[in-house]
């Protein structure tokens, strides 16, 4: 039986019909869609309504209709930084991922390149394309398995690079249904933070300003970073990447290892033996397993080192 919170609204048959009608000819609309299939953790119960708009126009129409129908809306990119509740998500889940995505590279008079990218484009796909073109400063992102939109929300970063280094402009759909283009500074990007969730923006597309670099050096760096990931990260298991934010002056993985938690297991969830900063799904892990494990790790690390670990992964319910 599906768990429902007290007073929680159910999506009615009539609301479902209106949504299905909007998706009759294009996009994807399904009901009771298991979200485990749409997250890299392979965890998560069903979404009442699951919608994948075909383009920006359908996305805007969907948001208008959800507002009119008063149906709750949760955004999902590639689902690579989220932990979805075992009970799933009530209301609609709007999946913002387009394959192969839209990227336009335009060279400016000063030699810099303006790259305009749709939010649903794969971040690693965009970064790889930029590197192929000999554009520098995106090497760090070639192994990050999210979308460009999700990357901007999290100010994704690795190996000394991050989204805010090259992002110059973002176009968003506001809660009021307006499409607005903002300079990147307005998003107040900092370590794994942006104002996007609290303002209720939906990222539609982004402009990055890139400069040409040494092609050979770029290629070598991409290879080096990808070997590093393969060596150090448990890529063979489902996960959401680093489970905890890096506490100032420390590394989460090292604190967890020092607390004796390498391989610590709750149900199907485990502190990776390969990299203690990752919680992995060893098979059949539930959201409850991962949450219990996260709580245990936070408590034991705090007892051992006095450092409070804050989850990086976002909980969706
Ligand atoms: C193996 C592995 C390695 C990883 N390595 C890294 C790494 O090196 N560095 C790093 O920073 N992260 C890393 N991650 C985490 C993750 O890939 C990034 O945080 C990524 O940017 C998340 O993008 P996503 O599209 O999957 O977003 P999701 O996980 O789907 O969503 C994240 C948040 O963004 C919101 N959101 C998504 N799209 C939009 C949009 N268009 N508009 C508004 N809100 C939106 C969602 O509602 C959610 O709150 C890793 C994950 C894995 C599994």
Could you describe the 3D structure shown?
By secondary structure, the chain is α+β, with helices and mostly antiparallel strands. It folds into 3 domains: 13-95, Uridine Diphospho-n-acetylenolpyruvylglucosamine Reductase, domain 2; 103-217, Uridine Diphospho-n-acetylenolpyruvylglucosamine Reductase, domain 3 (2-Layer Sandwich), CATH 3.30.465; 235-316, Alpha-Beta Complex (Uridine Diphospho-n-acetylenolpyruvylglucosamine Reductase, domain 1), CATH 3.90.78.10. It has 8 helices and 17 strands. It has helices spanning 13-22, 56-69, 123-132, 148-154, 196-199, 215-232, 252-258, 287-305; strands spanning 28-34, 46-52, 73-76, 82-84, 89-95, 103-107, 113-118, 157-158, 161-162, 167-173, 179-183, 202-210, 239-242, 265-266, 269-271, 278-281, 314-316. Strands 6-7-12-10-11 form a 5-stranded antiparallel beta sheet, with helices on one face. It is globular. The two termini are 17 Å apart. The structure holds flavin-adenine dinucleotide. Flavin-adenine dinucleotide binds next to strand 3, helix 4, strand 8, helix 5 and strand 12.
């Amino acid at each position: 039986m599906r768990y429902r919170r007290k007073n929680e609204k159910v999506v009615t048959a009539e609301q479902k019909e209106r949504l299905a009608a909007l998706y009759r000819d294009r996009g994807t609309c399904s009901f009771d869609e298991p979200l485990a299939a749409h997250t890299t953790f392979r965890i998560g119960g069903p979404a009442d309504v699951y919608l994948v708009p075909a383009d920006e126009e359908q996305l805007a129409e969907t948001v208008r209709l959800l507002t009119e129908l008063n149906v709750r809306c949760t955004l999902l990119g590639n689902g690579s930084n989220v932990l979805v509740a075992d009970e799933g998500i009530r209301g609609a889940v709007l999946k913002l991922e387009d394959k192969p995505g839209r990227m336009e590279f335009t060279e400016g008079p000063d030699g810099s390149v303006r790259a305009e990218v749709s939010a649903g484009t794969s971040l690693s796909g965009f970064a790889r394309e930029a590197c192929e073109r000999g554009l520098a400063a995106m090497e760090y992102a070639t192994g990050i398995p999210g979308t460009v939109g999700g990357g901007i929300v999290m100010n994704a970063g690795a190996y000394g690079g991050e989204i805010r280094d090259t992002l110059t402009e973002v176009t968003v759909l506001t809660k009021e249904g307006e499409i607005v283009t903002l300079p990147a500074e307005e998003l107040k990007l900092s370590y794994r933070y942006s104002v996007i969730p609290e303002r209720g923006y939906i990222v539609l597309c982004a402009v990055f300003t890139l400069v040409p670099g040494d092609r050979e050096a770029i290629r070598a760096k991409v290879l080096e970073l990808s070997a590093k990931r393969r060596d150090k990260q448990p890529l063979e298991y489902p996960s959401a990447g680093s489970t905890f934010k890096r506490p100032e002056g420390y590394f989460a993985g090292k604190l967890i290892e020092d607390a004796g938690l390498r391989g610590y297991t709750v149900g199907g969830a485990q502190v990776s033996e390969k990299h203690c900063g990752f919680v992995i799904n060893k098979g059949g892990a539930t959201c409850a397993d991962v949450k219990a494990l996260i709580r245990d790790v936070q408590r034991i690390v705090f007892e051992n080192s006095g450092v409070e670990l804050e989850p990086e992964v976002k909980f969706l319910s």
